[in-house]
Automatic annotation (TrEMBL):
Name the record gives this protein: Kynureninase
Source species: Pipistrellus kuhlii
Similarity remark: Belongs to the kynureninase family.
Primary role: Catalyzes the cleavage of L-kynurenine (L-Kyn) and L-3-hydroxykynurenine (L-3OHKyn) into anthranilic acid (AA) and 3-hydroxyanthranilic acid (3-OHAA), respectively. Has a preference for the L-3-hydroxy form. Also has cysteine-conjugate-beta-lyase activity.
Pathway connected to this protein: Amino-acid degradation; L-kynurenine degradation; L-alanine and anthranilate from L-kynurenine: step 1/1; Cofactor biosynthesis; NAD(+) biosynthesis; quinolinate from L-kynurenine: step 2/3
Subunit structure: Homodimer.
Length: 468
């Protein structure tokens, strides 16, 4: 299934159609792409919801026994089948031996998080000692900012992108307030140009160059939650550090979605959740990264027992022996049931590899883009066909698997009609519908089905809006 060298996804679709002697929009193209997909078997590792089990479904419109078209891994990933097994192992251990489970089994509870940290190295591109699995994303963000954001009279700003995820925005506001700083003066927000949806890298770098001497921390998302824009993390890191800034990233929508090389890029710190592309379940165990160059210079501002070296932790003498680097930021013992669900997913990533997943993702999302433009591009407006605009960047380097769509018709009805037909995606204010074909468990035929159901949903929405 690997695309030919330097072959764009649209060219791959056309080539396969030519080989099959059919139109690029034919179902046979999707089926052939699935046949040639070397990762297709990973779909069997996950529970895929059935049509009949979805709350908004209209059973008169679907085959109740079919799989739903689940394109919402950007919000909540599907459940790996081994999650239940791993949870039952730990529950059984707890039931049978109680406190002895702290030191016994595949996942001793004292070191449960450490037993799976190595599975994250390929996903984020870091050394194991630079990774810690703990807490939730915003908690980790606060812990990291407390250590990296040390404002001075001359260097006191935090730089972030416009419309950052609310949680990040609130975290930054509260950190500024904690230091008694004026939010309006200290929160430097980079906005897109007038009439544009996404940020230009040159505009971000220009702000860093001009104002870098007053910026203490740059905190961007690796992937913007609304537009799906993948920011140029190496360029932002290099530019920020050249001006003396610490550079960190919220990787909630990037981790498990695109290839990351945090260590090699020299990123100072990062954090992520694990319930989106990492499939750990709602409220799953989050992660953080602190570059090894800071292991002996940046220390946690808030301390806890699990930041103490394991070899002397149980001496209980209250004389802290802080673990250098990321692990020193741990405060409490790991929640083992959350470790189980994350382990189940990370083991699948280990088998698939991020490089192979990203290669498939480029083609999978490119196929979705191709079909959307074919049926609903701006050139179709004269035929009175609804126009579907993709606000996510078209260059594959500037996006992951998510495409954010806006419509020339009201999206409320469109979204409702999609839900009735078993399409699981989401809408985000002000007017976007996010669609994310995930390479681990989505197929090319899922994308084909989505396009057909979108057409049906648009027709139904138009009839409803016209009072028919």
């Amino acid at each position: 299934m690997d695309p030919l060298p330097h072959e764009l996804p649209a060219d791959t679709v056309r080539r396969v159609a030519s080989e099959l002697r059919c139109l690029p929009t034919d179902e046979r193209v999707a089926l052939r792409l699935d046949e040639e997909d070397k990762l297709r078997h990973f779909r069997e590792y996950f529970h895929i919801p059935k049509m009949q089990d979805l709350p908004p479904i209209d059973l008169s419109l679907v085959n109740k026994d079919e799989n739903a078209v689940y394109l919402l891994g950007n919000s909540l990933g599907l459940q790996p089948k081994t999650v239940k097994t791993y949870l039952e192992e730990e529950l059984d251990k707890w039931a049978k031996m109680g406190a002895y489970g702290h030191e016994i089994g595949k996942r001793p509870w004292i070191t449960g998080d450490e037993t799976i940290a190595g599975l994250m190295t390929d996903i984020v591109g870091a050394n194991e000692k630079e990774i810690v699995l703990m807490n939730a994303l915003t908690v980790n963000l606060h812990l990291l900012l407390l250590s990296f954001f040390k404002p001075t009279p001359k260097r006191y700003k935090i730089l972030l992108e416009a419309k950052a995820f609310p949680s990040d925005h609130y975290a930054i506001e509260s950190q500024l307030q904690l230091h008694g700083l004026n939010i309006e003066k200290s929160m430097r927000i980079v906005k897109p140009r007038e009439g544009e949806e996404t940020l230009r890298t040159e505009d971000i770098l220009e702000v860093i160059e001009k104002e870098g001497d007053s910026i203490a921390v740059i905190l961007f998302s690796g992937m913007h939650y609304y537009t799906g824009q993948h920011f140029n993390m190496p360029a932002i890191t290099k530019a920020g550090q050249a001006k003396g800034c610490f550079v960190g990233f919220d990787l909630a929508h990037a981790v498990g979605n695109v290839e990351l090389h945090l260590h090699d890029w020299g990123v100072d710190f990062a954090c992520w959740c694990s319930y989106k592309y990492l499939n750990s379940g709602a409220g799953g165990l989050a992660g953080a990264f602190v570059h090894e160059k800071h292991a002996h210079t940046i220390k946690p501002a808030l301390l806890g027992w699990f930041g103490h070296e394991l070899s002397t932790r149980f001496k209980m003498d209250n004389k802290l022996q802080l673990i250098p680097g990321a692990n020193g930021f741990r405060i409490s013992n790991p929640p083992m049931l959350l470790v189980c669900s994350l382990q189940a997913s990370l083991e699948i990533f280990k088998k698939a590899t991020m490089k192979a997943l990203r290669r498939k993702s480029v083609l999978l999302t490119g196929y979705l883009e191709f079909l959307l433009k074919h049926y609903y591009g701006k050139d179709k407006a004269e035929t009175k066909t609804p126009v579907v605009n993709i606000i996510t960047p078209s260059r594959v380097e500037e996006r992951g698997c998510q495409l954010t769509l806006t419509f020339s018709v009201p999206i409320k009805s469109v979204y409702q009609e999609l839900e009735k037909r078993g399409v699981v995606c989401d809408k985000r204010e002000p007017n976007g519908i996010r669609v994310a074909p995930v390479p681990l468990y989505n197929s090319f035929h899922d994308v084909y089905r989505f396009i057909n159901l979108l057409n049906s949903a648009l027709e139904a929405a138009e009839r409803k809006d016209n009072g028919v």
